[in-house]
Each structure stands twice: as structure tokens, then as C-alpha cells.
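thoughts on these C-alpha cells:
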Amino acid sequence: MPVVSHTVLRKFVYDIYRAAGGTEEDAKIVSDHVVDSNLVGHDSHGVINAPNYIGGMAGGPSADKMEIVRESGAATVINVNGALGMVAARKAMEMAVEKAQSCTIGAVGLHRCGHAGRMGEYPPIAAKAGMIGIVLLNGGGRFMHPHGGTSRRLPPNPIAISVPRADGEPLLLDMTLSVVAGGKLLVQSAREEPIPEGWMIDSDGNAITDPNVFRDRPEDTAVMPLGGFQFGHKGFGLGVMIDAIAGGLSWAGCSRQSPTRGASGIVMFAINIKDFIDLTDYEQEIEYLVEWVKSSATLPGTEEIYVPGDFEQRSREKREIEGIPIEEPTWKKLVDSAEKYDVPIPTSLDV
């Protein structure tokens, strides 16, 4: 398995996108997004997906395709018209922050949006502006079964939340309401590794450990809601409500056989903290919270209690030094893409 410097990988993917017709802005935003996803340990949203975005690079600037279809003081709904989702989502959160500066809360909904990648990328944009950022998505492919059912009905419907703190990077929660994101199954398949019991079931409720059936047998397999057989009503219930909010408000449509505008709707929220409490006081409260949580006694074998965002930050620190491990099939796809567009393949992968 190649281990590649993030700087080498970043330039390699960027060069492929530029050669495929992407603008400087689009190529940079998307290449940074996938490489940063690997850096923070979310390989399911990293360069394993990089070839999937090549086709969207040649259609002109993504920002030019974004069409505002409804707007009020605090809210905007945008038809992205199939543009690159990572570009549209970043700009949407920036718009939500701008609205929150004058309206306390800013909300931007997106529909007909290309795949926007890792939702945890966007809330910190608000947090670093002194706000609370929240992202809801009714997307990622409808592969989760309802609690008590076995058929694929809901997407993983992720939620991501970020808040600023006085010391350190913002807190960041980024989670799906299925037990695992679909991309993690693809990573297991690329690594030729089985999946743990409790991730997927067949139509009879039996556990599945072969990751390849995720793609090969969509008609009689499904990913479990967060909480599994015993507490899956919680993940399923939250998933339904996120579908209702993100699908409904964004105009994308809620999950069904043929959603109104294809589903995969995103809603971005920014909440201006200073309209409730002085920002410094709020950030101090977050430090009190983190300190209190981390002061807990630990289980045997646990060296540190992580608060939301710690895992990603530790992974970034480690991989910036040691490099990013890339599955052989993933690296081959990148090389094949580079050869197609006459992009030089890196001769050194070292950090």
C-alpha cells in the first residue's frame, strides 16, 4: 500500500482536475477536500472518490451554475444545477455566515447538487467566524433500512456541527445516522478486508461480512441504522427527521422511490453567537465543558478521552508527518486518470 505525502497527493489530484478542464478554483477546492478528508482519517471520503469528480470539471465554473430560486432575509434556496457539490457547499456555508451577521441565523438550502463529500468540512467555516455551524444532508445513497425493516429506504443522512473554542480547533461532530458511511464499505472492499458484524444485514436479518455485497446485492441487503437491532430506533428516528428537514427545506425532496428533485438536499445553518452571548464568554464555556469531560476516569486501555474533533486533529497531525496510506486499487485509478490526461505521475511519494 503506497504511503504518500499529503503535499504530493494534493498537487497530483489538483493537476488531474486541471488537465480534465477544471478551473483553478474548482480544482483546488475539490482536491483539497478529498486530501484533507484522508488527512483527518476519513478515508471513505478521500482520494478513493477523486476519480468520480473528474467528469464535473469540464463544465465551466461551478459558482456560475448556482441559481438562487428563493430568498428572504435569513434564508436562501439554491438550485446548484449539477455543479460540483464541494464548491457549492463551501459557498453555501459562506453565504449562511454572511446572512447570520445581520439576521442572527443564516440558512441556505441546496438541491440538484453534485456529491458534496464530507459534511464535516463545512461547519468549521462558521465556527472560525465566531458562529455555530450546522449541516444536514438527506443524501449519500438510500441504503439504510428502517428500524424493524430490512429494505433499503433511507440514506445515511449525516449531521455535522461545529462550535468555536478559546483554545484549539473548533469542536466538530460529523456523523451518519447509519452505523457506517457507504464509503467505508468501499474502503473495506478496496483493502480486501471483511466488515464487522453489525454493519449490514440481508433480507432475513442475517449479518453480512462481505463488503462487496454493498454494491453487488442492493436488492436484498441494507446497512443498519445507528444503534443496531437494539437501539436502532434512535439512529433511524434521527435519520427520518434529518430527511424531513434537509429534503423538505432544500426543495430536493424527501426520500422515496423517485424523490421530487432527486433528494440529496443540503441545508446549512450559521448561528451568530454574539447575538446571544459575548463570544469570549461562550468560548470559555466550551473550554469548561471540554475540561470537565476530559477529567473523567478512563476505562482500562484508554489513554485519552476524545471530544468531537479530537480524532480528526490527531489524525491530521500524524498523517502530515507520516504520510497518507492509499489502497493499491485507489492509487491505480489515480494513475490511470493521470495517464488519460497526460499528467506526470509523481516520482517520489515521500513526505
